[in-house]
Request: fold
Amino acid sequence: MRLLFLGDIVGRSGRTAVCEALPKLISRHSLDFVIINGENSAGGFGITEAILNDLIDAGADCVTLGNHAFDQKDTLVYIDRHDRLIRPLNFPRGTPGKGATLLKAKNGADVLVINAMGRVFMTELDCPFRAIDNEITACSLKMGADVIFVDFHAEATSEKQALGLFLDGRVSGVVGTHTHTPTSDHRVLPSGTAYMSDAGMCGDYNSVLGMESDEPINRFLTKIPRGRYEPSSGQGTLSGFAVEIDDKTGLATHCAALRQGPHLEPAMRSFWRDAAQS
Ligand SMILES: [Fe+2]
Reply:
């Protein structure tokens, strides 16, 4: 099956880019399942129910969150109405919503999506390694689910790499989110789990993490807030992770980074080809 993960949507630029491009990507590549991190989609902070519905209408099968999960207070109420919206699994017991969901893909596969948050340079939460381990013990690959995909919302690359190798061979894919900067380390790990340290963001890359640069630069220079962080309004670029998964084993066979839009440079191979032609 073909699974596409899109990195953190930041503001209107990211939403517009995703809602315009996703239906075409789904039909052009015959995608079976699409996951999007939506925690920054509402003005950079959280997600509203209307935006969630727009993303589902555009083709998202599941929307994941992170440290900004409840920045829009309504989310505390509506999250329990939606099977396709999940927040980090290792939030404190009693937090509204859930951290994992089992959904049907277009090809009929049962896909378990898990969202968890890292703890290095982030808020102290329950151990994400043990929380995910408990989840996939209860619903394991090929016993409870045909495909298992993990969005690990974390700051430190070391923690993401450790989780990828901890889960290698037991889940179909592990992708990092939160840094808003795509990494170039996407690969299939030795025992068959597709891995990418960070999927990057869907938004305006001429910015600081998707936000207009004036206020971040001011705060680095003076340490005195002068205004709010506002999402950058230039044209959005899509960044994500595409994974081909073997239907029999539920493990990955190939993976690739998706970069589509006006900002991110192409891969080295086309760079040299273009340079040779000029
Ligand atoms: Fe985040």
In short: The first strand starts at residue 2 and ends at 6. Residues 39, 66-68, 153, 178 surround fe (ii) ion (CB under 6 Å). The mean pLDDT is 95. The radius of gyration is 18 Å.
